[in-house]
Amino acid sequence: MAPIGFASHDHNSCIADAVKSVDAACAASGLQFTPVRKRVFEILLEEHRALGAYEVLDRLRSEGLGSQPPVAYRALDFLTKHGFVHKIERLNAFIACAHPTEKHTPAFLICRKCSAVAEAETDIAQGRLAGIAADTGFAIERAILEAEGLCPNCRPSDEKA
Amino acid sequence: MAPIGFASHDHNSCIADAVKSVDAACAASGLQFTPVRKRVFEILLEEHRALGAYEVLDRLRSEGLGSQPPVAYRALDFLTKHGFVHKIERLNAFIACAHPTEKHTPAFLICRKCSAVAEAETDIAQGRLAGIAADTGFAIERAILEAEGLCPNCRPSDEKA
DNA sequence: TGATATATGTCATAGTATAACATATCAACC
DNA sequence: GGTTGATATGTTATACTATGACATATATCA
Ligand SMILES: [Zn+2]
Ligand SMILES: [Zn+2]
Ligand SMILES: [Zn+2]
Ligand SMILES: [Zn+2]
């Protein structure tokens, strides 16, 4: 799966499609995709960048959907727990998943200049770390892979090869 | 390089050796390995687990080496910046590097039960993510790889293969 | 409808990190 | 040795991130 995030795309339909597919996934699993949760997911989709919990909360507050931190954190916890949103540990921030209904292990490319974040895919189970883990008897359950650098838009053009 | 952290070893000499080699590296690079910085490095070495900045600060305080957060954060920043210590983003905590004078890209195996952390090595430059980055024109400068799971000591023995 | 689980509203507090500025120490040069 | 600029430390204050606790409301299902 190619990363999104550094290329333009049909953003309106991107948002609508993502909301619709998560809506369906929740219905299928008996999860409640409540107004606050849906709105938080939309807020994250609108930017395709990682937002801090308090940035999300500010938006919710301005829309009358909640004013205290737990409101934002609960919605983000729900979305993260079910894989619709990912937390970027490096930034203490959250981003909507690029393909929220597929089972996957996300990896991220984070631009240190413009803060754009692209989600890509890894397979931690076949890298060098997996071999070391197997050798030492460590059982990997999940992995975080976050690469920091310069996105194509922020790189000086003479460096682009 | 094999990970350390899940196996016993000669801890006294491990600490002494690490301090000595960092001391030499600092001297060679014109860096000041001051008492606070050295003590923070030792504190982290003593445990071979990730300590929060405020845990480090508590120890400094009890030894009369500093009582305010910036003291701990500055020492940790120095040590991290020069690669003698790594930050575990997942835990907001810091751990002494397992081989502080070699240039390397660290990866971590974090036990969710006992919080032990083992440092291993990756080569992000040859994984799947590197290919995607190259394709999209993203220039990776550094990468964080943190795997979470159960260490050999915390795994039920009947699961160990 | 009533019982149970799940979600929200709100207040309070814990945990992590940095800005800003004064003082002290170090390093290098005259 | 004293001057000077850079680096490090001490200290106060504050900003940012996250969760505990408990009351109320809403949804789910027998
Ligand atoms: Zn979009
Ligand atoms: Zn950029
Ligand atoms: Zn040791
Ligand atoms: Zn363990």
UniProtKB/TrEMBL annotation, chains A, B:
GO cellular component: cytosol
Keyword rRNA processing listed: no
SUPFAM superfamilies with a match to the protein in the record: Winged helix' DNA-binding domain
Binding site for Zn(2+): 111, 114, 151, 154
Cofactor binding note from Swiss-Prot or TrEMBL: Binds 1 zinc ion per subunit.
GO BP annotations, alphabetical order: negative regulation of DNA-templated transcription; regulation of secondary metabolite biosynthetic process
Listed cofactors: Zn(2+)
Keywords: DNA-binding, Metal-binding, Repressor, Transcription, Transcription regulation, Zinc
Keyword check for Lipid biosynthesis: no
Coiled coil: none
Molecular function (Gene Ontology), one example: transcription cis-regulatory region binding
Family matches, as PANTHER family: ZINC UPTAKE REGULATION PROTEIN
Membership in a protein family: Belongs to the Fur family.
Protein name per Swiss-Prot or TrEMBL: Fur family zinc uptake transcriptional regulator
Species in which this protein is naturally found: Pacificibacter maritimus
